[in-house]
Amino acid sequence: MLKIFGAPGRYIQGPDAIESLGEWSALFGRRAALVIDRQVHALLGARLAAICARNNIALHDVIVDGDLTPALVERLRAQARAAEPQFVIGIGGGKAIDAGKAVAHALHCHLVTVPTVASNDAPTSKNYVLYDERHNLLAVEHMLFNPTVVIADTRLIAGAPRPFFLAGLGDAISKKFEAEQCFRARGKTMFDAASTLTAQRIADSCFDTLIEDAEDALAAAGTGEPTDAFERVVEAMILMSGLGFESGGLSLSHALTRGLPCIDGVATAPHGLQVAVGLLIQLDLEKRDDDIPTRLHAWYRRVGLPSTLRELGATRIDADELAQAVELTLKARHTANFQTALDADALIDALRRRA
Fold first, then answer.
1. How many domains does the chain have?
2. How far is it, in rounded angstroms, from Cα 25 to Cα 303?
3. What is the pTM of this model?
């Protein structure tokens, strides 16, 4: 296989970085579709319009409500097309960012992403997730290229509720180990290519940064005042994590998010918390002989991440639900990125040990 490394064209981060939105957007035209969730629009809509107006950019608001289903995607695309935008701005949490990707993908235009939380690394990647009407993950779609510009305003992100930040830690901490497994298994990344050494090193640095700075960064989460540690961890959770997973590869930790929601009480747990528990299951099945599992368990306790299915919200550990969870997990594409073959019995046993 060829190796491929992908990334956004520009990544801008810092307090009040959103004030540069108009300057960057003006590079792509004078009419933009603003894909934004309703709550963020109520808080920031007028400010965004003023920022863009200073650069003679008109915004056409496309409001996102609920899960990103195929039906919602078609409605959003139709609303955006009616305004004949020259580019798309996606702003908000993961679902709004993904909605912006879906619209930009259909319109074949530039995308600027502006995350208002650091709950995941969606702002930098080309993929977006679709759900069915029952809120189950349906498919992962891909833009041809990554977002052109990512603007991470750390003052905005520091103002978001702390649970979003914790979910981002859970999503990002796995990337070192998933990229390692993809590399060892000679698996395929999100570019359907071989993992790059560059992405491996970025994923390593993501892990090191989180281990060193996450506790201090959490102290700033929710305050609206970013600190140096907060800046470093936001960069790790959005940029390093995004580059690490997309060009380095995913593995069992993320494959498990296809199956874990089958367990009663887990479906409502944030994606990042599901990944965090999935990582411990992955490390168990790796049969490691180093101190990583012990170090991670201690770190989980310090930052407040769940380490068991019950802490994730499971109300019972039912044999039929476990079997269904394992079946869906083994069907997920990232399960193949594991250096040893996985079977249902081994995975069920690992889930029971993590109950």
1. 2
2. 37
3. 0.96
